Amino acid sequence: MSSEKIIIAIDGYSSSGKSTMARRLAKTIGYRYIDSGAMYRAVTLYAMRNGMINSDGSVATDMLTAALPAIHIDFKVQGDGQQTMLNGEIVESEIRTLEVSNHVSPVATIPAVRHALVRMQRDMGESKGIVMDGRDIGTIVFPAAEMKVFCNATPERRAERRYKELREKGADVTYEEVLANVTERDHIDMTRKESPLRCADDAVMLDNSAMTIDEQNEWLLRLFHSIVDK
């Protein structure tokens, strides 16, 4: 096995399981896991807390752009998990709410936000040995990543997974609300002008609609070894 570390980019649709598999793979192979989606959620939470989300759901773009230098995001490993930190505060639970989910795609369409977070993400991956998941990791953030995967599953299956996750955390949501959120985020992510969601030409496609978590983890690990063990 090669001792040289690589960059692993896992992109895909909302609630396609990419974060779960990326986190597990990173732990298995001893790499650092970077959840780029959590970074956009943290910026969204900052905007919500500071009155930058208008009553109609639009974003006060100029205000948020001006505040970007004051937004610092990092990850803290605790026990068996990883916590997202916003300006030194652990906000992992707060960023996973449906309310944040409903606003994150409009925030993520803002060019200044994307440029700022891409710079942070590239800095995090400078020494390689990372697994990063998101929407534009293999196309924009690390187009030269040695391993690229694009995840998909049916909207219904993705909404089912997300609904179960939210209910387990005590959220008062309906399946219909979650499905509407998933499909709306798909539309926004694929049609935005800045770094739209798309599969990189050299990415390996994975439809995990009918796969268990263990099955997709085994698939990903096999792919990793097929690349680094050459």
Give the SSE map.
Elements: E1 7-12, H1 18-29, E2 32-35, H2 36-49, H3 61-67, E3 73-78, E4 81-86, E5 89-90, H4 98-108, H5 111-124, E6 130-134, H6 137-141, E7 147-152, H7 155-168, H8 175-191, E8 204-207, H9 213-228
Parallel strand pairs: 1-6, 1-7, 2-6, 7-8
Antiparallel strand pairs: 3-4, 4-5
Low-confidence stretches: none
Helix-strand sequence: EHEHHEEEHHEHEHHEH
**Largest sheet, strands/sense/barrel:** 5 strands, parallel
Strand coverage percent: 15-25%
Helical fraction: 40-55%
Estimate the global geometry from the Cα principal axes. Answer: globular
What is the C-alpha radius of gyration, as a whole number of Å?
Answer: 17 Å
Number of strands: 8
pLDDT averaged residue by residue: 93
Strand arrangement, major sheet = 2-6-1-7-8
Describe this structure in words.
Helices cover 48% and strands 17% of the residues. The protein has 230 residues and is an alpha/beta fold. Strands 2-6-1-7-8 form a five-stranded parallel sheet. Helix 2 crosses helix 4 (98-108). The protein is globular and about 55 Å long. The chain starts with 6 loop residues before the first strand and ends with a helix. The mean pLDDT is 93.
Task: Kindly list the characteristics that best describe this protein.
230 residues; 8 strands; five-stranded parallel β-sheet; alpha/beta; 17% strand; 48% helix
Summarize this entry quickly:
The chain is α/β, with parallel strands linked by helices and 230 residues long. Helix content is 48%, strand content 17%. A hairpin with a 2-residue loop joins strand 4 and strand 5 (89-90).
